[in-house]
Design goal:
The complex is a heterodimer of chains A (92) and B (415). With 92 residues, chain A is mainly β. Chain A has helices at 35-43, 87-90, and strands spanning 2-5, 9-12, 17-21, 51-57, 65-71, 77-82. Chain B is of the alpha/beta class and 415 residues long. In chain B, strands 1, 2, 8, 9, 10, 11, 17 and 18 form an eight-stranded mixed beta sheet that branches. In chain B, strand 9 and strand 10 form a beta hairpin. The chains are: A mainly beta (92), B alpha/beta (415). Chain A binds chain B through residues 1, 12-14, 18, 20-21, 35-36, 39-40, 42-49, 52, 54, 70, 72-75, and chain B through 237, 239-240, 243, 248-253, 297-302, 306, 308, 341, 397-398, 410, 413.
Chain lengths: 92, 415
């Protein structure tokens, strides 16, 4: 699979480490969260068949985190974005 | 059924006397038990429900064709070399069932107990394997620790002086080995069919019939089918099927690839695993080297993988067994694994009365086929988990009761 990196252009997916469902970014705050909610966050997955938003970490590259939207049935990559906006745009 | 006399007779008369090994019934509207999934585990469940519990009014619903999923896509290895008390007695029961299976269901599954050898490369790894061997023997299984000289006797062609992973020894389970995987599906199907089970192919479940928190059956592409008990057994697609019942699972679906070389003369005794290098290999009766490694490592339902894993697996093979460098890869394929959060499976009731769940087999489902069916049938028939499967609960993470065989935590892509 080729991931079209927003900054670096097309890169081999083997340069990345897969980090699972992009929803995992939204980690609940521990002291405000019940055991059941934390269990659901940590262990349960939608595990979608079809368009799936997921995290890829560019370990063998610029170490950015990407949110890749990929069809899990065909492996077609539908969209790629930085998980966090660039620092110079984050505060504007 | 396939006696030598019959084969000769059929050979001389144009092979016109063979009959299908199971019926192709149309689904009825009502059964005692519906099993979703006509793979190895589903068929085994139907067989043991009929044989052990006298429940024969069963429909096995298969979306595609019988045995076209993971029972036909694995690398055929059987073993009971686990460590944890939640796992090892279960897998040893499975091994004992394998040992009696052909006589039990009267079908030649080509069960070949020619040994499984796991290599180790350091003192720490040796100590872990000795501990594992002791746990295996406590459960009644067999285990031997071999030093490098003993392995050299049976596999002289390995790279013993590999710079990164020199071979210091291994743990061997002589009763491990391989089984003709398709014949397992066919044998269970035929034996279940003979006991009255309806095996219904090309019948996809499209929804569950729910009333007041009870599951009363399923909607399918071949009509509505009702039953007091519905049992999902669709590892690889578990999340898709259980989502129709409104349940999220501690599972991600990942693709695992396997490979076969061209046919070679017999050289590999049993199964050899090089875990440190993501490579394991056995040799089929046709002579092909059957080998594999790790999952690709991203969510997938595609039943095919990508080339980086082929590269990685072949590198591992070349590192430990340089002689295979001239062999050509003939075929490669992929299957979809239910990767659970601790690497261990589930055989449990669900939040919905009358709905049962079996899945999360990661890439170890084939060897578990007989015990999975046996224990799932026990749960469905009696309402209580079988003794050796009582830890395979769906809610085990909530209570901190993960069965963390590899000690890798909630990272299914690492199992």
């Amino acid at each position: 699979m080729i991931i079209n990196h927003p900054r670096l252009g097309p890169r081999d997916s083997a340069e990345f480490v897969y980090k699972g469902d992009a929803g995992l970014i939204e980690r609940p705050f521990g002291t405000d969260t019940s055991i059941e909610q934390m269990h659901d966050y940590a262990y349960l997955r939608d595990n979608t068949a079809g368009a799936h938003r997921e995290l890829w970490y560019h370990e063998q590259g610029d170490r950015s985190w990407l949110i890749v939207t990929r069809d899990t049935v065909t492996h077609e990559i539908l969209d790629v974005a930085l998980a966090r906006p660039p620092a110079d745009k984050a505060t504007s | 059924m396939h006696s030598a006399l019959r084969i000769i007779k059929e050979g001389l008369t144009g092979n016109k006397g063979w009959k299908p090994a199971w019926r192709k019934p149309d689904p009825r509207t009502q059964y005692d038990v519906i099993i979703i999934g006509g793979g190895g585990h589903g068929l085994a469940t139907a067989y043991y429900l009929a044989k052990e519990h006298g429940i024969t009014n069963i429909a096995v619903l298969e979306k595609g064709w019988l045995g076209g999923g993971n029972i036909g896509r694995n690398t055929t290895i059987i073993r009971s070399n686990y460590l944890l008390p939640g796992n090892q007695p279960f897998y040893e029961l499975s091994m004992k069932l394998w040992e009696g299976l052909e006589q039990d269901f009267n079908y030649n599954a080509m069960i070949s107990q020619r040994g499984v050898l796991n290599l180790f490369h350091s003192d720490g790894q040796r100590d872990a394997f000795v501990r594992r061997g002791n746990a295996m023997r406590l459960s009644g299984a067999d285990a031997q620790i071999l030093d490098a000289a003993a392995i050299r006797d049976i596999c002289p062609y390995l790279d013993y002086d590999n710079a990164r992973f020199p071979i210091k020894g291994g743990i061997r389970q002589p009763r491990g080995g391989t089984v003709r995987h398709d014949a397992v599906a066919w044998g269970y199907a035929r034996a279940a069919d003979r006991r009255g089970v309806d095996i219904i192919e090309n019948c996809e479940v499209t929804g569950f019939i729910m009333e007041n928190g009870h599951c009363l059956g399923v909607e399918t592409t071949r009509g509505t089918i009702r039953a007091a008990k519905t049992a999902a057994c669709v590892a690889g697609s578990s999340s898709k099927v259980m989502a129709m019942a409104g349940q999220r699972l501690p599972i991600e679906s990942h693709v695992l690839q396997a490979f076969v070389s061209e046919g070679l003369k017999p050289i590999i005794p049993g199964v050899i695993t090089f875990g440190a290098g993501h490579f394991y290999v056995s040799q089929s009766d046709k002579g092909g080297l059957v080998f594999g490694g790790d999952i690709d490592g991203y969510n997938s339902y595609a039943q095919r993988g990508n080339l980086p894993v082929l590269h990685d697996v072949c590198e591992g093979g070349m590192a430990i067994m340089p002689m295979i460098g001239r062999a050509r890869v003939l075929r490669m394929w992929g299957g979809i694994m239910d990767m659970s959060m601790d690497g261990s499976p589930f055989i449990d009731k669900t939040q919905t009365d009358g709905l049962f769940f079996n899945g999360g087999w990661c890439y170890g489902g084939f060897k578990a086929t007989p015990a999975s069916g046996f224990c799932y049938a026990h749960l469905i028939a009696t309402g209580r988990p079988h003794e050796v499967a009582q830890n395979y609960r769906l809610d085990r993470f909530l209570g901190g009761a993960a069965i963390d065989e590899k000690g890798q935590g909630a990272q299914p892509n690492l199992h």
